[in-house]
Recover the amino acids of this structure.
């Protein structure tokens, strides 16, 4: 198999990322010459590749890769690579046209912008202060830019520095912009940007707290997607013929309705909440006014307000049982969806419920599901408890976030880890003190050979037994661990030391724990510090009462530290 001609290898690796190729070459050193093949390295994608925590990234490229062939480079999330290294690399990439460098040390400072001269596509993070540059540099070095993705990280400085940059981006067709501020007084004025961009045909806005009402009909842009869930607010506009622009809430499909899905769609519409589907489906439905041919890749039925009523739940079931959801990849639901089916003739009261779970059909219909989030509904009662046992039938699951009610004992997690062999990400949120959950979770973890990210939030955790569970894993795949609990009274120091010794690949160990004893606190900090031997690593202990914001953590890791949904929203890393 190794002795294939290079054309065959080229074909194989053309569709894989550079990360796959690099991992492959690590196993078969004699194939490293593939990294010099033009067609293979043309699109070089090493987004978030933790291999470069130990290996010097820029040195690797300079020595092993035929870098002058690179036209598209994705280094998103390589936050630890020093700025001067990245700049020296960029100065060598004379053919580079696309650069994806979110969450790296690159920005819009003058020395960075000078390196962007050939770029048609750019994704980068910048503070408002970084934008305070000689505007002529933007004029000279960024005028070719067609697609731009900008994450605005900090708001110190004058915001007009940001606006004036856009005046020089004549060719810009597509803009993605994320505002990370949490202060309403400092929101970006998007009008100041949009009205400068004559040729814009797609605008993606993401914000943490709020986006004011924006109407871009005058410039021929239709709002095709809007999601205001938790701390992720996303609005998307696309160029559209004037007569087709309708307010999103007024979109209606052609009746008569022929399918169950269309009826369900109409029911959801009457709740005046966000529609559950992903951007791709939203755009198609907006443009065609047709739901029955849509294909859903993501569905999110969680809203800031909980709709625990039979109409909403039935509509959710109908969405998820439709053939349109057969290729569903990501799903976020409230635990209401786990309810039993009410018999059609009797009243909808608990005693009358048969033990039929519509979720069983959903699990079968959505068997390709890779990501599942289940939020707990406080109005739902113990009748949903057995249904958690169905989750382990979703054998393609890679990421699971589950909020566990106090009446669920967590033994379903043992089955999930045994049956879902691809599970890489597990986040468990406990709704209260749940001793059985703790015990079952510790039991489950010891089989978690494939787990990379693990997060637990609970009133009380027995950290000693939890770490014992983690220490029984021998795969060395764990990357990030986050523990948040108010009460922790065990002596877990030894287990922590074992964990860190056994898993030098751990990037993030964040313990948000209330510890009263000063000596214990100091000892744990000492252990964490001793093993935190690389600038990519974050090992922390801090009291739950303190806000985490004082800990300087990369946004890359916020997904595991904060509760937010990942379904039917937009991640700037999706900008490609
Ligand atoms: Zn409910
Ligand atoms: Zn509820
Ligand atoms: Zn306690």
């Amino acid at each position: 198999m190794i002795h294939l001609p290079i054309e065959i290898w080229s074909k194989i690796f053309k569709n894989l990322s550079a990360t796959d190729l690099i991992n492959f070459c690590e196993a078969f050193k004699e194939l490293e010459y593939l990294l010099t093949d033009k067609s293979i390295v043309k699109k070089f994608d090493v987004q978030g590749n933790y291999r470069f925590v130990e290996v010097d990234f820029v040195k690797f490229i300079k020595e092993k890769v035929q870098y002058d062939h690179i036209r598209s480079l994705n280094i998103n999330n390589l936050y630890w690579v020093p700025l001067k290294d990245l700049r020296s690399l960029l100065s060598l990439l004379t053919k580079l046209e696309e650069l994806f460098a979110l969450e790296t040390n690159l920005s819009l400072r003058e020395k960075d912008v000078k390196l962007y001269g050939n770029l048609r596509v750019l994704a980068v993070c910048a503070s408002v202060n970084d934008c305070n540059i000689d505007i002529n540099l933007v004029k000279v070095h960024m005028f070719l830019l067609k697609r731009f993705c900008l994450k605005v990280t900090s708001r110190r400085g004058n915001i007009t520095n940001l606006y004036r940059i856009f005046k020089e981006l004549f060719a810009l067709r597509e803009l993605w912009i994320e505002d990370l501020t949490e202060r309403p007084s400092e929101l970006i004025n998007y009008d100041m940007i949009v009205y400068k961009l004559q040729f814009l045909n797609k605008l993606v806005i993401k914000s943490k707290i709020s986006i004011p009402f924006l109407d871009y009909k005058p410039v021929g842009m239709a709002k095709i997607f809007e999601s205001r869930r938790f701390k992720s607010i996303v609005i998307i506009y696309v160029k559209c013929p004037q007569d087709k622009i309708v307010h999103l809430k007024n979109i209606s499909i052609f009746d008569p309705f022929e399918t169950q899905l269309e009826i369900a769609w109409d029911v959801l519409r009457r709740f005046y909440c966000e529609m559950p589907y992903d951007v791709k489906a939203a755009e198609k439905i907006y443009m065609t006014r047709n739901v029955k041919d849509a294909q859903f890749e993501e569905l999110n039925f969680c809203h800031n307000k909980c709709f625990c009523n039979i109409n909403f739940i039935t509509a959710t079931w109908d969405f998820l049982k439709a053939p349109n959801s057969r290729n569903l990849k990501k799903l976020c639901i409230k635990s209401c969806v786990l309810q039993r089916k009410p018999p059609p003739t009797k009243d909808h009261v608990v005693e009358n419920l048969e033990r039929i779970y519509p979720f069983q059909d959903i699990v079968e219909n959505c068997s390709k599901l890779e990501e599942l989030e289940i939020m707990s509904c406080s109005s739902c009662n113990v009748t949903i408890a057995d249904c958690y046992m169905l989750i382990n039938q979703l054998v393609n699951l890679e990421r699971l976030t589950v909020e566990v009610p106090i009446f669920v004992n967590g033994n379903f997690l043992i089955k999930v880890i045994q049956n879902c062999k691809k599970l890489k990400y597990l986040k468990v949120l406990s709704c209260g003190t749940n001793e059985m959950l703790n015990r079952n979770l510790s039991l489950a973890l010891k089989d978690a050979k494939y787990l990379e990210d693990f997060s637990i939030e609970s009133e009380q955790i027995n950290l000693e037994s939890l770490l014992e569970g983690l220490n029984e894993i021998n795969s060395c795949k764990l990357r990030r661990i986050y523990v948040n609990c108010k009460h922790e009274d065990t002596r877990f120091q030894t287990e922590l030391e074992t964990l860190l010794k056994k898993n030098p690949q751990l990037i993030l160990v964040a313990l948000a724990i209330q510890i009263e004893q000063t000596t214990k606190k100091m000892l744990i900090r000492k252990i964490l510090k001793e093993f935190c031997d690389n600038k990519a690593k974050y090992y922390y202990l801090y009291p739950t009462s303190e806000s985490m914001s004082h800990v300087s953590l990369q946004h890359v890791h916020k997904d595991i530290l904060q509760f937010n949904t990942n379904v039917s929203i937009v991640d700037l890393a999706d900008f490609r």
